[in-house]
Design a protein that fits this description.
Strand content of chain A: 25-35%
Largest interface: A-B, 61 and 61 residues
Number of strands of chain A: 13
Largest sheet of chain A: 9 strands, mixed
Radius of gyration of chain A: 19 Å
Number of helices of chain A: 10
Strand order of the largest sheet of chain A: 5-4-1-8-9-10-11-12-13
Helix content of chain A: 25-40%
CATH architecture of chain A: 3-Layer(aba) Sandwich
Structural class of chain A: alpha/beta
Number of domains of chain A: 1
Oligomer: homodimer
Chain lengths: 310, 310
């Protein structure tokens, strides 16, 4: 089933305790498309770049089955640029520079062929753009996944709530779930967020894994402990890409299949963090990925023993 | 198999976003003994109290199979007292008062009948006391579990390292594992901590669950999302108690059985936080506990699907 994905394609400059890279390829849409393309070849991309973005990167994605009809390249302008420095513990980061550049004028018009896509992945962007994309769909997609962040809750909550009301799956982190719902308990936060619209809530907790809430049921995907987390940038987008790629491929949006989709997302995220930029995501093969799925499985398996009380 | 447990019995005054309690029963040894006593009736307790500690509490534990020969009651002195206030998000807390009282002179002499216990649970205390208890054992116990905290790493690291070298299982939280090892990656932290002595490292992550490291293998126990976390005090000790109770009952210290033991610990911790003090731990039955073990199981189960690459 066809996937529509919208989000940034960008340059990142990143410093982590493991090193520093300058103007490497980044952006939500880039990570989502790379991760999804392992499972799916019918991906319609919507994004905007300046004339500084390497055409070779565009061609590589094309070669992986990504339709670029919805990619706008603006002449004489620069691509979106983000620079950040991670704290020593990697769990926090400071943004040093955000240059919107082409993103400031991003007002995507969906190509006709995109408007019947069944799976829609709205990468983290202003709610206005996310809403505009949804409004251009000719039919209600089978599944809409929304990624967002606290920044939009702070400055555009009303608009964000409009988008949230229209999606099936919301992916945010635990602090954002608490902020959005006003509830500290994630169980209560989930109930409240379901009432805003999304039938599925995915809470991404980084190294601690991810939680899926749906109709009173909960799934806890473990976080795979990684020897060397080099750079967490793009992990959330790789997660989203792996998940939507798997869902579109299997075309099954049941709770049960959503659980496996989250493992696919977690697997792609676990690879992503092992190097800067897309370096690790570019060179995966089936054997590596299946081995890691098995690692996720064995990580959480235990013998259920029901002792009688003493 | 007999359990020896050493730790505080105390009064706590606690404030959380859900309420405030004054001078309720607390202390590591109290929580450990209550949690363990569901699975095991041969528990030898070592602790110290003042004449203010209710004899009824002592009798209740006796009735649950806890041997009180190693409990010292000091006349004309007060029991250990701790007072704390949890932050709004419950993940942090400020200590308001620590009155050592009787604890300042605690120098436990093990009754003869205690000295051949096979399972030893060293609750969080000064490393000197933990070491003294271990040195009084007549035979090397089958399994020694050590709980400690960053406070002892800060002020008594050398002595703590002596204890750590003598134990089989160390339970600490993720920040403490990082502090103790000097490694950010928990995989590397575990390898380093194994080299200090303990064959098993358990990293307690509160609402995010727990990790078990052993000989290059990893188990991730999920954290059960709880609707109303009323008071996290004692959760780590309830975890330790549930775990050691299960281990002593089954008398099996394999990695596989240790995984189930961690689920037993997690189950007892999940009950503990649902009310202040020991209120919830006092009134559990087999049906409730087994149901919760099943909840932990279903929380992490997913269908393993190995798709071919697109």
């Amino acid at each position: 089933m066809s996937i529509l994905t919208v989000g940034t394609m960008a340059f990142d400059s990143i410093e982590t305790p493991y090193g520093k890279v300058d103007k490497v390829i980044g952006g939500a849409c880039t990570y989502i498309s790379w991760a999804a393309s392992y499972w799916h070849k019918d991906i319609s991309l919507v994004s905007i770049i300046g004339d500084d973005f390497p055409q070779d990167e565009v061609e590589q994605l094309k070669a992986r089955g990504v339709n670029m009809e919805g990619l706008v390249r603006v002449p004489n302008k620069k691509s979106f640029y983000w620079s950040g420095k991670y704290h020593k513990d990697m769990n926090g980061r400071d943004t040093l520079v955000t240059d919107l550049n082409v993103l400031a004028d991003f007002n995507p018009i969906l190509p006709q062929s995109y408007r019947k896509c069944k799976y829609v992945m709205l990468g983290n962007l202003t709610p206005d753009i996310q809403l505009s994309v949804l409004n251009q769909m000719e039919e209600r997609p089978k599944l809409v996944v929304l990624d967002t962040m606290n920044f939009w809750m702070d400055i555009a909550l009303e608009r964000l709530m409009e988008v949230i009301a229209k999606v099936d799956v919301l992916t945010i982190n635990d602090e954002e779930a608490r902020q959005l719902s006003g509830e500290h308990s994630l169980v209560k936060a989930a109930a409240k967020i379901h009432s805003f619209g999304p039938k599925f809530l995915i809470i991404k907790k980084g190294e601690h894994g991810a939680l899926l809430f749906h109709e009173g049921k909960i799934f806890f995907a473990p976080g795979l402990p990684i020897s060397d987390v080099i750079d967490p940038t793009g992990a959330g987008d790789s997660f989203a890409g792996g998940m939507i790629g798997y869902l579109a491929r299997t075309n099954d949006t049941s709770f049960n299949n959503m659980k496996t989709a989250i493992i696919y997302g977690s697997v792609m995220a676990s690879f992503c963090v092992e190097d800067f930029s897309l370096s690790r995501l570019r060179h995966l093969d089936e054997k590596m990925i299946h081995a890691r799925i098995r690692q996720f499985e064995s990580l959480g398996l235990f013998d259920v023993v029901e002792l009688n009380l003493a």
